[in-house]
Amino acid sequence: MTGKYNQPLGGNEMPRFAGIASMFRLPVATSAENLDIALLGVPLDIGTSNRNGTRYGPRQIRCESVLVRPYSMATGAAPFDSFQIADTGDVAINAFNLQQSIGIIEDHYARLLEHPVKPVSMGGDHTISLPILRQLAKKHGPLALVHVDAHTDINDSMFGEKICHGTIFRRAIEENLVDPKRMIQIGPRATGYSADDFDWARRQGVQVVTGEECWYQSLAPLMTEFRARIGPETPAYLTFDIDGLDPSVAPGTGTPEPGGLMASQGLEVIRGCHGLNLVGADLVEVSPPYDSSGNTALLAANLVFEMLCSFPGCKRRDQATRAMP
Fold this sequence. Notes:
Helix 1 (57-64) packs across helix 9, helix 3 (129-140) runs parallel beside helix 4 and helix 8 runs parallel beside helix 9. The chain is built from 9 helices and 8 strands. It has a single domain (23-311), classed as Arginase, Chain A, CATH 3.40.800. By secondary structure, it is α/β, with parallel strands linked by helices. It is globular and about 55 Å long.
């Protein structure tokens, strides 16, 4: 790599329907050496409890990312002028063994984090966040966490299994990977088995903001309050389950729930992470077989772009010359 930052291949250089389908049409790298941010896929879906198909998520998000341009017109953010970013490919999980796959993911991220790089991951089901958090916590200590989801994912077990996509944040709290008093869950809603589905997290100190509490309002003030509480120094992680959004805007997912966030609210949450000390992020649970139009994956690609814009050090145009959203 040279001192010049990688740039996405432009739509006027190569038609968007042509060329190699890397994330944002960036160069592909076989190592995280000299990268500031590594984009990678974790095509795991054997940890899900309902509809599968998220194993195809990383590939489809990459395909739809050809429509994402390099500058944010709303925030003035220019991530590709700020960081060295590349697509580092996918984790080679074991499609037949969940526990072994978790170990494979941990090993992959351990090697990745030998470099001073920040991972931005595409799932795959939400199980992938636990092994990623394990490795990030080894490097940074317990993390602050922004968690967008239709579910709290704090079950003690599912079908007798302690690790799957519905248990990971109970494990993360128990293992001291995240600080529950510096954790916010945005969007859980709909039906459950008992009040404890939300209350266990609250008893640990987690701020749980239900989907109903988000209806008909901007989430920018919520994120302003969270940033002020966490501060700019605490290492933080953003995990965004696409089912946190309403099925009307993101139908292509395995466990959809009505009454979710609008796409604009999802953007507000991610943009509201600018000012946190983000050390990594993920976007999970996109299931292309249930995404007949491709719009869920397209939205996911845009959300990943917004994640890049929210990392500390991302250059932005002079805010005095424009109006912020």
